[in-house]
Amino acid sequence: MAQMYDREKEIEKLARSVRMPKLNIESSLPQELPLTIHESGDVEARLILEDIYDDAVMEALNYCSRDTVLIGMTVSIRDLAKIRYNQQGAEGESSRGEGGVSQSFEEGIPRKIRTALNNYRLAKVRRF
User: Fold this and answer.
1) pLDDT at position 38, please?
2) Which residue, among 2, 14, 19, has the nearest Cα to 77 in the 3D structure?
3) How far apart are alpha carbons 123 and 65 in whole angstroms?
4) What's the rounded Cα separation, in Å, for the pair 109 and 66?
5) pLDDT at position 61, please?
6) Separation CA 60–CA 105 (nearest Å)
7) Rounded to the nearest 5°, which phi and psi values hold at 94?
8) At 117, is the pLDDT very low, low, confident or very high (cuts 50, 70, 90)?
9) How far, in Å, CA of 124 to CA of 128, rounded?
10) Tens digit of pLDDT for each residue in 19-57?
11) In the prediction, which pLDDT does 66 show?
């Protein structure tokens, strides 16, 4: 039986891989009490993670010229989302140096992920 793509399951896997505590948003929000700073931070972090994941999905779908996620693409999408999550605060930078430590960032989709996504890429038809 073929597996189906499950966005929530993939976001939970991403949250575990970036060491974010598991959070069920519906059950964590008290109905009558306002959020504490800690709880609101967890919800905000979760929403940011979901946005990053959704952006990674869109980037992979655009690269592959597809409308839906195939189950084999999920690992590459999760890897891309991890990279984007870890690059927060360094958007638009190609390299950074702090305290004698330098980092360089690859623009666009990294080569390793592009290579894996190439298996799912649809060819474009052009007229001459």
Assistant:
1) 44
2) 14
3) 8
4) 16
5) 96
6) 18
7) -100, -25
8) very high
9) 13
10) 765 545 444 444 443 444 444 557 888 888 999 999 999
11) 94
Place of tokens 């931070």: 41
Pairing of strands 95-98, 101-104: antiparallel
The residue behind tokens 């896997």 is: 13
- Residue 22 has, within 13 A of its CA and on its CB side, a CA count of 6
Q: Which amino acid is residue 98, in one-letter code?
A: E
The model's pTM: 0.73
DSSP string for the chain: ------HHHHHHHHHHHTTPPP--HHHHS-SSSPPPHHHHHHHHHHHHHHHHHHHHHHHHHHHHT-SS--GGGHHHHHHHHHHHHHTTT-TT-SEEEETTEEEE--SSS-HHHHHHHGGGPPPPP---
